[in-house]
Design a protein that fits this description.
CATH topology of the largest domain: AhpD-like
CATH class of the largest domain: Mainly Alpha
CATH superfamily of the largest domain: AhpD-like
Number of helices: 10
Largest sheet: none
Number of strands: 0
Order of helices and strands: HHHHHHHHHH
Distance between the termini: 21 Å
Shape: globular
Radius of gyration: 17 Å
Helix content: 55-70%
């Protein structure tokens, strides 16, 4: 088991004391989740970086969208599975289990989304996200048209691409820094 006081392999201690607005945000995390996610602690060595990360994350994952919160979490898990990002698989796998109420779906998406019982819309969304992760330069109009045919608007396609892009970036940072998932994620919603 890793040292939970250090969220990554890098020696970048959190700002101490945290600014009041950051402390309030962390307190809300504890209230809602029971802990502060290590990805936030990892970024808290530089409050400007933490604020940029959380602003982007919150916009992509929580703001109004034609994609449900569950669909955005599904993208996060599929991208993270392809990239083999331990942190994001654990954290976002837990979110899929919670939002779907289906622990088996979360496990299927972690291992191989193609075995999951998905509707045509979800399958198209995840196929596009997977292709964006493995061969983004090969995406062409036909790929976007598949999404439109599945019921996604061009705005939805923008959101799919941005969520997949964000997690491709986040996965690489988490893997490169050996970011450790909070142990609480492992037992959530099973």
């Amino acid at each position: 088991m890793s040292d939970q006081t250090q969220p990554t392999a890098l020696d970048l201690p959190m700002v101490d004391p945290l600014p009041p607005e950051t402390q309030k945000y962390f307190d809300i995390c504890v209230e809602k989740l029971g802990f502060v996610p290590n990805v936030l602690k990892a970024n808290a060595f530089d409050i400007a970086k933490l604020n940029a990360f959380t602003a982007m994350y919150n916009d992509l994952m929580l703001a109004d969208s034609g994609l449900s919160k569950l669909e955005r979490e599904m993208i996060a898990v599929v991208v993270s599975a392809i990239n083999r990002c331990f942190y994001c698989l654990v954290a976002h796998g837990a979110a899929v289990r919670q939002l779907s109420g289906d622990p088996q779906l979360g496990e299927m998406l972690v291992m191989n989304y193609r075995v999951a019982p998905l509707d045509a819309r979800q399958r198209a969304m995840l196929d596009f996200s997977a292709k964006m992760t493995t061969a983004s330069a090969e995406i062409e109009e036909a790929d976007r048209q598949i999404l439109r045919d599945a019921g996604f608007s061009d705005r939805d396609i923008w959101d799919i691409a941005n969520v997949a892009g964000f997690f491709n970036m986040s996965n690489r940072v988490a893997s490169a820094t050996a970011m450790v998932p909070n142990p609480e994620y492992h037992s959530q919603c099973r």
